[in-house]
Amino acid sequence: MDNELHVQGGQLDDETDDLDIDNILMAVIVMGLIFFDPRLNHVSRRRRIRDSALSGRDYVLEVLNGHPDRIIENMRLSVPLFLHLCDILVDRGYWHAYPSQRVGVHESVALTLMCLSHDERHRVLAERFQHSMETIDRHVRRVLRALVRLGRDFVRPRNVGETHPRILNNGLFYPWFKDCVGALDGTHISAWCRTEISEQYRNRHGGLSQNVLAACDHDMRFVYVRVGKYYMVDAAYTNMPGFMAPFRAARDTQHERAAKALFNRRHASVRNIIERSFGVLKKRFPILKGPMQNYLIATQNNIVLACCTLHNFMRDYAPNDEYFDEEAALGAQLDLQDGGNEIHEAQPIDMSQQGIQNWNENRRAIAVHMYVNRHGA
């Protein structure tokens, strides 16, 4: 009897309990019909923003199967090269597929190439590929990281023990530059940063840019790329073993000045390969020209390295690429000319090290031999 005082007003009848459940279910069904029936419910519901019938995956398939020029105009690669690039990234483990991921490697690479090749805003890519801006940003950064890893395979020296045909077959260069394997220089790439650190990236023109140091071989392939902070110097690099700089102005005899001027002209002709390489790089990837979007500095660095990787990938697998062909034709004409007559102003340099002294003597001997070969004894 005492226990009944603690259980009062309850309903212990199973039939009544089942009836209550049936009533609740009926009410839920009626409410559902009211909510989803447009004739009964006039409350506006939010529509999906990305509601195109052509998904990003379908767009990529359409481009791959469409006119050959479409993919070149949009992604700077032909269909076979695009597929080969995707296969390399997957086969070498630089791009991994996740089971829950709806965006495959082809779509991921395609939207990144369009970003680099046309400096497309992520909002535009989100509309084209029918994904959220967060998804676009995530995949752009993911593919950039994959291309930077691929750069370890493609951005490296090769055939350094051989005299390049560009030198070997040019009477203005051979035999004096027979051991030259390429050229080194820096360039400015558009940058974006927070206001509080903007002075670190301010260039002499007042804009924001980051310094990129790169070396290339005579095939216009980058063999070394350095992004980030470091001290930049002008054309008056110190002449030292492994790095041959042009002569600076000095008080010499007439013949010595003429020999050094001739050396500097031909030195400039050999060295312009790095300038042409930068030209192809920026022409193919306008994102480097700026103004740079508000990416993090780390992402901006990856953009530069990824573009250099793609540059070398194209050079290796598309030898008849129009950008390279145009620069190669121009370079062939310049290589036959003794262009440039600049001798840089003298700067105080410590020449006490024996290695530097020997290297300077080697350069002087080259200049004299070059002058005698042209003008006679």
Query: How can the largest sheet be summarized?
Result: 3 strands, antiparallel
Range of helix content: 40-55%
**How many strands appear in the DSSP assignment?**
3
Class per helix and strand makeup: mainly alpha
Tally of distinct domains: 2
Question: Strand order across the biggest sheet?
Answer: 1-2-3
Nearest-integer average pLDDT: 80
Quick structural gist:
The chain is mainly α.
Characterise this structure.
- With 377 residues, this protein is mostly helical.
- 50% of the residues lie in helices and 6% in strands.
- The protein has helices at 14-36, 56-64, 68-75, 79-91, 105-118, 122-129, 133-154, 165-168, 254-284, 297-317, 322-335, 354-375, and strands at residues 183-190, 209-216, 222-227.
- It has a 3-stranded antiparallel sheet.
- Helix 5 crosses helix 7 (133-154), helix 6 packs across helix 7 and helix 7 (133-154) packs across helix 10 (297-317).
- The termini are far apart.
Q: Which terms would index this structure?
A:
single chain, 377 residues, mainly alpha, 2 domains, disordered N terminus
Topology (SSEs and partners):
Layout (H helix, E strand, L loop, with lengths): L13 H23 L19 H9 L3 H8 L3 H13 L13 H14 L3 H8 L3 H22 L10 H4 L14 E8 L18 E8 L5 E6 L26 H31 L12 H21 L4 H14 L18 H22 L2
Antiparallel strand pairs: 1-2, 2-3
